[in-house]
Amino acid sequence: MREWIEISTPHLFGREREYLINCIETNYISSIGPLISKFEDKISQNVGLDSGCTTTTSSGTTALHLALIVAGVKDGDIVLTSDYTFIATANAISHARALPWLIDIEECSLTIDCNLLRETLIKETKIVNGNCIHMKTSRRVSAILPVYTLGHPPNLEILNQISKEFKIPLVSDAAAAIGSKYKSEDIGDYSLITCFSFNGNKSITSGGGGAICSKNKDLINKAKHIASTAKIGSSYNHDMIGYNYRMTNVQAAIGLGQIENIKTIIQKKREISELYDSSFNDVCGIKKIPECSWGLSSKWLSGFILNEDSDIEPEFIIRELNKNKIRVKEFWKPIHLQTPYIDSLQSNLSFSTKIWKRIIILPSYININNDDQKYVIEIIKKIFK
Q1: Which of 148-164 are b and which e, b meaning 16 or more Cβ less than 10 Å from the residue's Cβ?
Q2: Average pLDDT of span 283-293
Q3: Which of 9, 29, 62, 17 minimizes the C-alpha distance to 256?
Q4: What does DSSP assign to residue 341?
Q5: Which residues pair with 99 in a beta bridge?
Q6: What is the DSSP letter of 230?
Q7: What value does the mean pLDDT take over residues 318-323?
Q8: Which segments within the chain are labelled E, that is strand?
Q9: DSSP conformational letter for 309
Q10: By CB neighbour count within 10 A (0-12 exposed, 13-18 middle, 19+ buried), where does 211 fall?
Q11: DSSP class of 299
Q12: DSSP string covering 149-203
């Protein structure tokens, strides 16, 4: 009897077991332990930064929350972000007691539309005493938070130009993008802060956890301090409101075993994507998920986009795949359609509104065998016959 083929599952094939046993034998199972700093250094190395430029956290969401705080986001501020993303992006803005300003995505990358972002800022903001102010609400715009959609980088050079022009720090949500490149270069140096997630469904997992990366070590040290309840020294003295957002040594053990094999993992992810793309070239009614000339996606998840004029409904595709034990469901729902954010500030969101249901995500875990992936492809082709 055929087993279910999942979308994304962890695959532990390196030294994870060895490192976990080390945690138990040394009794370093909590938020102190040597593997945390080793994992942090490996992350820095893999995004093109020096040692000491990364601090790990308990999740990708807590990484984003801390990043916004240390970037200077204050109560009542506005943070610009992509409308098409997992809700954790918007939630992190809310956790920082700020308001999301939702910007549409562009067709060529599914990342934030930089031209629309600039046009929106020109029309709706002004610079007052070195701050970007939203004219209608008089609120400060204190960060731009672009998302690396499915592991694909946004146009970082243009975003940096916008950041400087409008005096707004750039904080990147690269949750699923470790291993991606921008113009063949590592991504860690392009934003003031870049955040990653190591949730169980990510390419590199620590079971749960996240990371904040920045070449500005003062920001990293501040984030580390706040994540450790803002405790001073060994006494119970705290100099500000802090959080218990630390990663454990056990999580770092898994993450370290994973990241040591990052090249193999990203290569396999790209092979999975390439097989889907090449197999669907002759399937009428669908197109591949785009990859722009400036970016090399980490290919966290693969799939296809259903054409607008297709007679086949997305819901039918999902039902047929599930009927054949391929576990597919609707993917991200745009933030402006989510109950907590319906009344958020927003640009024209016509593209994210019309495309989100047409993005079909397929099984993309790195140990999917060739037969299972070919079975998925066969079922897709039958649907479109």
Answers
A1: bbbbbbbbbeebeebbe
A2: 95
A3: 17
A4: G
A5: 78
A6: T
A7: 98
A8: 54-57, 78-82, 99-103, 125-128, 131-134, 139-145, 171-173, 181-182, 193-197, 210-213, 231-232, 237-238, 286-288, 295-296, 302-306, 345-346, 359-362
A9: T
A10: buried
A11: -
A12: GGG----HHHHHHHHHHHT--BEEE-TT-TT-EETTB-STTSSSEEEEE--TTSS
Quickly list DSSP for 123-152.
HHEEEETTEEEETTTTEEEEEEE-B-GGG-
Tokens of 237: 């003295």
Residues 6 or more apart whose Cβ sits within 8 Å of residue 250: 20, 23, 29, 207
Q: Pull the structure tokens for residue 95.
A: 């956790």
Q: Which of 229, 219, 225 is nearest to 192 (CA)?
A: 219
Instruction: For 78, list phi and psi in degrees, rounded to 5.
Output: -115, 140
What letter represents residue 243's amino acid? Y
Task: Report the C-alpha gap between 274 and 296 in whole angstroms.
Answer: 13
| Alpha-carbon span 176 to 361, nearest angstrom | 14
Predicted local distance difference test score (pLDDT) of residue 336: 98
Residues in the chain: 385
List pLDDT tens digits, range 203-229. 999 999 999 999 999 999 999 999 999
3-state DSSP assignment of residue 370:
helix
